[in-house]
Structure formats: C-alpha cells, structure tokens
Amino acid sequence: MSIVIGVRFKKAGKIYYFDPDAFEIEKGQNVIVETSRGIEYGHVVIGRRDIPDEELFLPLKNVLRVSDPDDDLKNKENMYKQIEAREICISKIKEHQLEMKLIDVEYTFDNNKVIFYFTSEGRVDFRDLVKDLASIFKTRIELRQIGVRDEAKFVNGIGQCGLPLCCANWLGDFQPVSIKMAKDQNLSLSPTKISGICGRLMCCLKYEHDTYIDLKKEMPSKGQFAKTEKGVGEIIDVDIFKQRIQVLHRPKGDDGEKEIEWVMKKDYDIVKK
C-alpha cells in the first residue's frame, strides 16, 4: 500500500497520483508537482489515502510543495498568457495558410514549454510555424494534433440531453463505446440520435450498459416460446427492467382470436416449439 493524493491539472482532466511526502494535504488545495512535462500547478481532488501498489505506476513523484500566493498568482498570469498566445498562433496559422484549427493553448507552470492543441483532417507541415512561434515566445514549442472527442472536451458545449458535455465537465477519461451498446439498450441506431456533438458515439452509452447486460442475462429473447397458464406462446417483447415478457398466443383454429399477455419471470417456462 502507498499513501497518495489525486491531482488534476484541468477541470475534467485525468487524475494523477503523487506521493504527498510529509505534507498534510487535503482535498481542495493546490499543489506544485513535477511531471514528465516539467513543473506543474495542480488541484487536489483526492485527499491522502492508501491505494494498493498494483493500482499505481511506481515510483510515484513527490509533491514539491503546497501552492502559496505567489504560485497562485503565477498560475493566473499563465492563463492570461495563454489567451495572448492563442491570438498570435491563429494569426500565424493564417499567415502560413495552414489547414489546421487551433483548439487550445497551454503553458507549463514553469513556462518551460507552450503547447498548442489543434485539429486537422490530414497531416500538416508546421515546421515554419514552430520556428515563428519559438522566436516570439523564446521557449520550447509543441504542436499537438488531437481528435474530435478531445476537441469537444476542450471546447465544451451542450449535449442532446440539454446538459453541458460530460467530457468537458467531469469525465476524466474517454471509455471505449461501440454500436453494440446501443443495440443492447434497444436504442435507435440512427447516427443523429446516438452521436454526440463530436460526431462520435455518445459517451453516455457506456454508463448503463453493464446494468442492461446483467438484467438481460436471465431473460429470454424475442422469438423464443414460453409456457404460461394460458398455454404456449411466442415471446414478442421483453421488459428487462420489470423482468417480464410479452407472449402472443395464436388460436389453433380459424375462428379464435390472438391473445397477448404480459407474464412475470416466475410465471413462465421457456420451451422449444
């Protein structure tokens, strides 16, 4: 077991674990830590706790210090620098006539690097752009191409549900989503109904999928036959939440009428026709 704290560097970014060392750090504080990108300013979202070593990537980096007023001021200054850097980069992209869309700009806390996030439909030769930016900002420049899901996370917006996007507000990591999840939940397979504003399948298809799978495990499928008090009939609908099926009884002769009934799980047996 190791004592760790969880730190985020963006509002809905991934949570990274650090060794708090001798610092008494609580959730809600800001800390200065060393990362693979350099010195960073992060927000503590998980207070001190024990986590099994097998769930961690060891060795953990230590927290350098709890942020002080000077650190908080520098972080705000970096925010303003990012706004200015964004405008400069956009003008340079137009000047070089590059087919790319700038999405976001990020300064590392120590100003050792400026990262420009962009999208593009293909590969972009941005070597001249990097040279121009390096001469202006006098620091290391990194241009990082991102996908449409990451673009939505950076930009934010309103989803089909009428709420702000999950990915931009609380969802730390993207989970794999497949069309099979929509099928398992009996949703419309129309791309306009199951796709987010990024054009990819909505992340929320993943949220309830495991529940649907668990509920369907013990339930029969449409087209099977069930024996009830009224006889043997074909299953034409399945209600997994109420754990019941709808059974169609067809008359044996020409004069009878079809009969449909809902039957609870305990009141039928699956049979072969």
Tell me what the structure shows.
- By secondary structure, this protein is α+β, with helices and mostly antiparallel strands.
- Helix content is 25%, strand content 30%.
- The chain has a five-stranded antiparallel β-sheet. The protein has a five-stranded antiparallel β-sheet with strand order 12-11-10-9-13, with no helix packed on it. A three-stranded mixed β-sheet has the order 6-7-8, with helices on both faces.
- Helix 2 links the parallel strand 7 (113-119) and strand 8 (140-145).
The number of distinct β-strands equals: 13
Strand content is: 25-35%
> How many distinct helices?
7
Mean pLDDT: 90
Which regions contain 5 or more consecutive residues with pLDDT less than 50?
none
Task: Find the structural class using helix and strand composition.
Answer: alpha+beta
Largest sheet: 5 strands, antiparallel
Read across the widest sheet, the strand sequence of neighbours is 2-1-4-3-5
Give me the strand/helix succession. Answer: EEEEEHEEHEHHHHHEEEEE
Roughly how many Å apart are the termini?
Answer: 57 Å
